[in-house]
Design goal:
- Two copies of one chain form a homodimer.
- The first copy, chain A, is 38% helix and 13% strand.
- Chain A is globular, with a radius of gyration of 22 Å.
- Chain A has two domains: 340 residues, Alkaline Phosphatase, subunit A; 96 residues, no CATH class.
- In chain A, helix 12 runs parallel beside helix 14.
- Chain A is of the alpha/beta class.
- In chain A, strand 5, helix 10 and strand 6 form a beta-alpha-beta unit.
- At the A-B interface, helix 3, helix 4, strand 2, strand 10 and strand 11 of A face helix 3, helix 4, strand 2, strand 10 and strand 11 of B.
- Chains A, B: It comes from Thermus tengchongensis.
Chain lengths: 501, 501
């Protein structure tokens, strides 16, 4: 990348991306300023969270739980706005480019962590915060080495190189890492047989793998890895008895350890599997992961209330699937029934597939849907699921609905009663990420009259910098340069059919 | 309705609707205040407009038109927030209940105009404005008697009684009515053979039916009816030569007439067919109606700039369909192609159906898609369209995708190339309204630091009242009372399969 790109950078980043060259009117940038500094910064990312997800969770909390979401209270009363999420060359981002935009303040090509397409590394914000003495924590429901947390601390051209990212984490030396991903730490699971648990323990980390160990540990530095891959969904933790900590429990383990540092801290919390359940078109898994995020949010706002020198920044990185409660019945008068019907859904498709195994018959499928989704499938629908699992026959198609067999498992239970829903009247536009602007909310003392408006996701970097008094500029790549690089070599991870983005 | 309901009303409206009884924590209400008064009020409603629609239009304007939307500039720089849209008993609203919430400040049951389910009439805001001497205007791309404009001026238990609403309009006596709906004014089309055109002319209105008549008229009061039913989509006006005024031309006819009144005015402008094209899952029709709305918005903001005593309130009434640009290609790197491919779409499904007639063959269908949608259908896809039009065979189903045969016509051209889209990679969650919160934006002098946050749609009534200094309270019905009434009698219009809501 040439120096001139760096120089012309600060204006080009974000605002002008995707604008044709020559005579184009620049998009208006809103550059809201906090107007004050903070000692601690908490960034809470809802991965793959759309406004339709919000509406469903808001309604479920009100109708079935008799309360308002903590998120509803924040949206109503504290500064919030919308963020554009597109990456450097694609109007639909994936999570690493979205993470980079927030963490590094510049647009990148989809697929790499804190790095440009030509290999130019970027400095992630939490690395800069560590340099100035802040303690660092990462808490997530995905593998702890996944794109959204990783993009805040390390640089790697391949977001899927999670075994390597585990080593980068050790070298980075954050105070708290909590999430999933045993396969990237366990010597029996890693290709290179390295024992990353032993290496972290040697570096002074308490290493914990169960909720009990997490609760008992008094280590000041913590590596918690609670599952082989991603941490199971909240719906399965809550109703199927899977023994992992909740997101709130992880947050509650992280906060006192980080708060003990006299120079303050930065913490990223990620409700990472909202994205996954939306990829799968799994309404109950999304709902309960949003509700679990809300409990974590309660804990975080309570911490901010007790520690007013803390800024909480809440953001979605992009929307996924856009599962929408749609109008049902005459004059849409039966629409709310779909909210109530979610109460009968007690497991994720992920868990159902584990239970069903590789060769279920139609009877087993029907029983699983009855017990875990509260839905009575027809013979035809059950057969659709059997063929998706056993023969890779996918419906309605495997492009738009590319996360299979799960998207077919969702399709099988679509609501078919036009008068009164007997299944949740929720539909998905696809099994992929989408382009809509997403939420940005700030919570902290002295913020009441901040007008966020519509900002670019790169503006998160500037808000974080202002909060902690950290100022630097990562090199900017132009869209044209990136497109030129993309022409000459294949890039990108496997197709989202195989890997969630 | 009992007096006590009116008394307990102001707290119950909106905030508590859909909360279970007893011990429920009230939802937090944000009650932002303008802090100043205005002489004129313009309410611009984007009917059925989702954040996914916004993202696609923003990208199309930047990539293909080389400019930023006026709406993007407003969202970036002026106070904006989100609105909850649910109606009194349904988490998914239709347009009359959404219109009532804004116009009357209270939640109602889906289906009636400025009226409760027990027949209690409500006073619409524009009726109150007229009482205090404001001139009134309604400009829309739907039938001028449609739910969203009508809910601001008249009360009627049946939103579909448009022939009767035309008579109510005459009695109401607004200064400007512009839109579609000849069938409700023309004596040859009305069942009762009344000549509403003659009646309006006798009451002093200039009556115009073409763009030329609209441009030539120098009448101070105006009834413009430009089509049999709804005004054709912008995409058909622009590329298929349909001879109707654009929304901007209607706005430009309305503004000087209203501004001539010395007591100021209230004007509702509706981009009403964004909702319809979203019901149909018609991406180009939605795009161009959003772009046409943006041109009208430019004209409106220019008026506000010249007349700083004017408040412009911009709102969506609900989302519809949620047609989302979804990630395509490896690492989603091909996603933006779908935006560019929209350039080849030059007609709506509505127009295509007119051209194809009732008995098209597969060859005619292929040619129509090629010429008007820029898409080469396969034989199988063309046959799907033939059977939908000629035999009412609908895919994928007629509940979620209930607007037929159009939803099948959309389904036929779904993107099927996983590597690189050859058709727009846009998918719909359904053909119905959805539950997500929608946009609310204010534009006017002295508003820079207003924090709108998340509000209820009933708050629009309070903002309008504050703007013009009009204070009154419509009677409130409880959700319980409404549910009791709904039990005892059938209500609602025809199923949304037959009538767009």
């Amino acid at each position: 990348m040439k120096r001139r790109d760096i120089l012309k950078g600060s204006l080009a980043a974000g605002a002008l991306a995707l604008l044709p060259k020559g005579g184009a009117q620049g998009a208006p940038q809103n550059v809201p300023s906090l107007g004050r500094r903070y000692r601690n910064l908490i960034v809470f990312v809802y991965d793959g969270f759309s406004w339709e997800d919000y509406a469903i969770a808001q309604a479920y909390a009100r109708r079935r739980l008799g309360r308002a979401l903590a998120l509803e209270r924040l949206l109503a009363r504290y500064p919030n706005g919308l963020m554009n999420t597109y990456s450097l060359t694609s109007y639909v981002t994936e999570s690493s480019a979205a993470g980079n935009a927030m963490s590094c303040g510049v647009k990148t090509v989809n697929g790499g962590l804190a790095v440009h397409a030509d290999g130019t590394p970027l400095k992630p914000f939490f690395a800069a915060a560590k340099e100035m003495g802040k303690a660092v924590g990462l808490v997530t429901t995905t593998t702890v080495t996944h794109a959204t947390p990783a993009s805040f601390v390390v640089s790697n051209p391949d977001r899927n190189a999670e075994a390597q990212i585990a080593e980068q984490y050790l070298a980075f030396g954050a105070e708290v890492y909590l999430g999933g991903g045993d396969r990237f730490f366990n010597p029996e699971r890693r290709q290179d047989k390295k024992d990353m648990y032993a290496a972290f323990a040697q570096a002074g980390y308490g290493v914990v793998k169960t909720p009990e160990e997490l609760a008992r540990s008094n280590a000041s530095k913590l590596l918690g890895v609670f599952s082989d891959s991603h941490v199971p969904y909240e719906v399965d933790r809550r109703f199927q008895g899977l023994r992992v900590p909740s997101l709130k429990e992880m947050v509650q383990a992280a906060l006192p350890r980080l708060a003990a540092h006299r120079n303050g801290f930065v913490l990223q919390v990620e409700a990472g599997r909202i994205d996954h359940s939306n990829h799968l078109n799994d309404p109950a898994a999304t709902l309960w992961d949003v509700l679990a995020a809300d409990e974590a949010l309660e804990a975080l706002t309570a911490f901010v209330d007790r520690n007013p020198d803390t800024l909480l920044l809440l953001a979605a990185d992009h929307a996924t699937g856009v599962g929408a409660l749609y109008g049902a019945g005459r004059s849409y008068l039966e629409s709310s029934v779909g909210i109530d019907l979610l109460e009968g859904q007690k497991a994720s498709f992920e868990h159902m597939r584990r239970v069903l195994g590789a060769n279920p018959d139609a009877g087993q499928v029907k029983e699983a849907y009855r017990a875990m989704k509260g839905v009575a499938l027809s013979d035809e629908e059950a057969q659709m699921v059997v063929e998706a699992i056993t023969k890779r026959v996918y419906l309605p198609d495997s492009v738009r609905y590319g996360i299979q067999p799960d998207n077919t498992m969702s399709w099988a239970m679509v609501q078919k009663n036009a008068q009164k829903p007997e299944r949740p009247n929720i539909g998905w536009s696809s099994g992929q990420h989408t382009a809509s602007p997403v939420m940005l909310v700030l919570y902290g003392q002295g913020l009441r009259f901040l007008n966020l408006g519509l900002v670019d996701n790169t503006h998160v970097f500037r808000l974080m910098g202002e909060a902690l008094g950290i100022r630097y500029q990562n090199p900017v790549m132009s869209e044209e340069e990136a497109l030129e690089i993309l022409k000459s070599r294949p890039v990108g991870m496997r197709h989202p059919e195989d890997v969630w983005a």
